[in-house]
């Protein structure tokens, strides 16, 4: 029996070591920066962790998030600026970090999505889609159906599925 080596080439826009978590972080940061129509976003790490859990089903800790953010920063996808200010009593007050998406990140996202709309508009309907999918799943679970029995899908679900 001969050994057959199959070489699968990676697309040039994919980084050498991209994980689902890093892609999800870049997409989430792009959503926040596109939402404000600015080149940066000021979201906290807790919010980032919650968004990754809610929209991508990735449950990660803040420590793990920092590990991936550091990786993205080292590779030139993002730039982070730590912000600290003082309150009126002279105590240090930590503000959310500024995240700047670099050109490399925009090229990566453009390669993923292959269309030239604004990044903020790409993900504008994600919360609506998640809510609709949850409703559809609840509707499927709420109907007590035998295995061979077919139940018609609600009309509102059919209309929404046409647009997804």
General description of the model:
By secondary structure, this protein is an alpha+beta fold. The chain folds into two domains: 108 residues, Orthogonal Bundle (Arc Repressor Mutant, subunit A), CATH 1.10.10.10; 31 residues. Helix content is 50%, strand content 13%. It contains seven helices and three strands, in the order αβααββαααα. Strands 1-3-2 form a three-stranded antiparallel β-sheet. β2 and β3 form a beta hairpin. About 3% of the residues have low confidence.
Can I get a quick summary?
This protein has 164 residues and is α+β, with helices and mostly antiparallel strands. It is 50% helix and 13% strand.
Give me some keywords for this one.
164 residues; Arc Repressor Mutant, subunit A; 2 domains; single chain; alpha+beta; 7 helices; three-stranded antiparallel sheet
């Amino acid at each position: 029996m001969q050994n057959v080596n199959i070489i699968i080439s990676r697309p040039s826009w994919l980084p050498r070591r991209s994980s689902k978590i890093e892609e999800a972080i870049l997409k989430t940061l792009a959503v926040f920066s596109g939402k404000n129509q600015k080149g940066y976003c000021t979201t906290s790490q807790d919010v980032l962790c919650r968004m990754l859990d809610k929209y991508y089903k990735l449950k990660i800790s803040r420590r793990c998030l920092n590990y991936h953010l550091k990786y993205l920063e080292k590779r030139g996808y993002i730039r982070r600026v730590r912000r600290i200010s003082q309150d009126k009593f002279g105590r240090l007050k930590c503000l959310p970090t500024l995240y700047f998406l670099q050109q490399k990140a925009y090229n990566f996202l453009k390669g993923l999505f292959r269309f030239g709309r604004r990044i903020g508009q790409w993900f504008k309907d994600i919360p609506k889609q998640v809510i609709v999918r949850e409703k559809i799943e609840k509707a499927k679970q709420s109907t007590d159906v035998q295995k061979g029995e077919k139940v018609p899908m609600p009309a509102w679900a059919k209309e929404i599925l046409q647009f997804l």
